[in-house]
Amino acid sequence: MAQHVLIVGGSSDIGKEVAREAIAIGHHVVLFVRDDTRVQDLAQAGATVIVGDAKSLEDMNKILDYYGTTPIDAVVHCVGSIVLRPPHAMKLPDFVEVLETNLVTAFITLSLIGKKMLKAGTGRMIFVSSVAASYGLTNHEAISAAKGGLEAMVRSAASTYAQRGLRVNAVAPGLTKTRLSESIRRSPAMEEAATQLVPIRIINEASDVSKTISWLMFDAPDTMTGQILHVDGGMSKIRG
Ligand SMILES: NC(=O)c1ccc[n+]([C@@H]2O[C@H](COP(=O)([O-])OP(=O)(O)OC[C@H]3O[C@@H](n4cnc5c(N)ncnc54)[C@H](OP(=O)(O)O)[C@@H]3O)[C@@H](O)[C@H]2O)c1
To answer: Is the CB of 17 under 6 A from ligand 1?
Structure first.
């Protein structure tokens, strides 16, 4: 049966892959984006686009206005940013900005969309973390703090709503070939150095991450909640 799927950060390279997969199998997809020019192809393919800033409660409420009484079956939060700098060289506003973009927007999604799902008594929520939450990567303090907080929040929310029909999980990718990681992969030498950190020596394509998200949305058993699925070539767990 066609499901109603919301992607917050729907213009992200990973989010767009999720959207393509969901549209291809007949689901109704809504993309919440800052910049609708990045998702014109998906709009033409049938996605509904809502424009706004995920940090703004007022903008995020447009999503609830759009759905009205229609339930949201699954939400994916793909909003993210990265600033790699050691703490002694990072200005406080830059640190706060990373927390706001990666963690505060996830909380707004969790609280607003979770409240709507609670009324329906069912719903799946998927957040995107990072290997930086589990592995001490040089100069990643800000993003590690944000994604570590996100993973802890996911486990807590999974517990809070365990008996009220909500399933809350996260996917934690390692380095993935999207525009977000372009600065880390800007030269062949940098890409090679990053690849050498991965036990299987393979960097993710966006589709490796999106397939895992799609599985959590449509195919995972109802018993799966509070989990962090690591899509990182083993980086968070093994040496290789
Ligand atoms: N690529 C990697 O190596 C990697 C590794 C680990 C985790 N991740 C995570 O994967 C997720 C998706 O990232 P990606 O790799 O697909 O990169 P991406 O294409 O740069 O996606 C990031 C998205 O966040 C959106 N965004 C940022 N601030 C926003 C705001 N205030 N309101 C609405 N949207 C906002 C951006 O919108 P605009 O299109 O307007 O810029 C962009 O679509 C992120 O959570 C990221 O942390 C990525």
So the answer is: no
Q: What angle, rounded to 10 degrees, do the helices at 92-99 and 141-160 form? A: 30
Q: For 72, which DSSP code?
A: P
Ligand 1 centroid–CA 114 distance in Å is 21
Q: Give pLDDT, residue 152.
A: 99
Residue 236's closest CA among 142, 182, 171, 154? 171
Structural domain boundaries of the chain? 4-231
From the centroid of its chain, how far is CA 144?
A: 15
Task: Name the token pair of 209.
Answer: 């991450």
- Write out pLDDT tens, residues 33-80: 999 999 999 999 999 999 999 999 999 999 999 999 999 999 999 999
Give the homologous superfamily in CATH for domain 4-231: NAD(P)-binding Rossmann-like Domain (3.40.50.720)
Tokens describing residue 109: 């999604």
Contacting residues for 103 by C-beta, under 8 A, at least 6 apart? 146, 147, 149, 150, 153
- Residue 186 has what DSSP assignment? S
Atom 6 in ligand 1: residue holding the nearest Cα? 130
**Which helix (H) or strand (E) element contains residue 188?**
helix 188-196
| Mean pLDDT across the chain | 98
For residue 11, how far is its CA from the centre of ligand 1 (angstroms)? 8
Nearest-angstrom CA–CA distance, 216 and 202: 23
- Taking a C-beta distance cutoff of 8 angstroms, is the pair 150, 127 a contact? yes
